[in-house]
Design brief:
Blueprint: H1 2-11, H2 17-30, H3 35-44, H4 50-62, H5 67-77, H6 83-95, H7 104-109, H8 116-129, H9 134-143, H10 149-160, H11 168-180, H12 186-200
Helix pairs in contact: 1-2, 2-4, 3-4, 4-6, 6-8, 8-10, 9-10, 10-12, 11-12
């Protein structure tokens, strides 16, 4: 196995980007969290070809490498030139739940991303992490004014996750304001009403 891994590490550095991509995916299938494999994949997240970078970070995630180990990599890739990669990074940070709390400031700072898909993924991640900080609630509140309806829908759904936190009163106030905002879409106002109803009857 060591010989095979050594060959894959060579492949991940070869000139052919298709071979580099394939090597990344094979590492994912091997399910080996050897330090030299992790380091090779982390280095490959800097590849010049976007789908090779994506394959490398996907493999690290598939291997269940801890967020602490790849925190620097995630922070860098959250600003990657590829929209697909930025969206994926936001998604996996959100999927990590409370373990993603140290990444919240970076997510908040990326909420001005030019891509609506990325902003939507960030809002969803913030909701899944559920860290009831004032800054998180504020950025989700601001996102209710986003030009992208998908971002607004995701943001108001994310706010519901903060009702069990110390920020509850702030969130309730935001939801009530949304209900009274005639400039807000009917879909968003309806979601606000549903969330408040569920909270009152919980």
């Amino acid at each position: 196995m060591d010989k095979a891994v050594s060959q894959l590490i060579k492949d991940i550095k070869c000139d052919d980007h298709h071979i580099r991509f394939s090597a990344c995916r094979v590492f994912s299938e091997l399910k080996l969290k050897w330090p030299k494999i992790i380091e090779a994949l982390k280095e490959t997240t800097k590849d010049k070809v976007w789908f090779v970078r994506l394959a490398a970070i996907q493999s690290l995630w598939d291997l269940n490498v801890s967020l602490i180990t790849i925190k620097g990599t995630l922070l860098r890739m959250l600003k990657d030139e590829s929209e697909d990669i930025r969206e994926y990074i936001a998604c996996i940070i959100g999927e990590s739940g409370s373990d993603g709390e140290p990444m919240v400031p970076a997510l908040i700072n990326s909420m001005d991303d030019e891509s609506g898909y990325v902003r939507e993924s960030i809002a969803m991640a913030l909701g899944k992490i559920g860290c009831g900080s004032t800054s998180t609630i504020q950025v989700l509140e601001k996102s209710l004014e986003d030009q992208d309806l998908g971002v607004r829908i995701t943001s108001i759904k994310a706010l519901e996750n903060f009702l069990p936190t110390p920020g509850r009163d702030k969130v309730i106030g935001i939801l009530k304001e949304v209900l009274e905002d005639k400039n807000q879409s009917s879909e968003i106002r309806e979601l606000a009403e549903q969330i408040l109803y569920r909270f009152r009857n919980s």
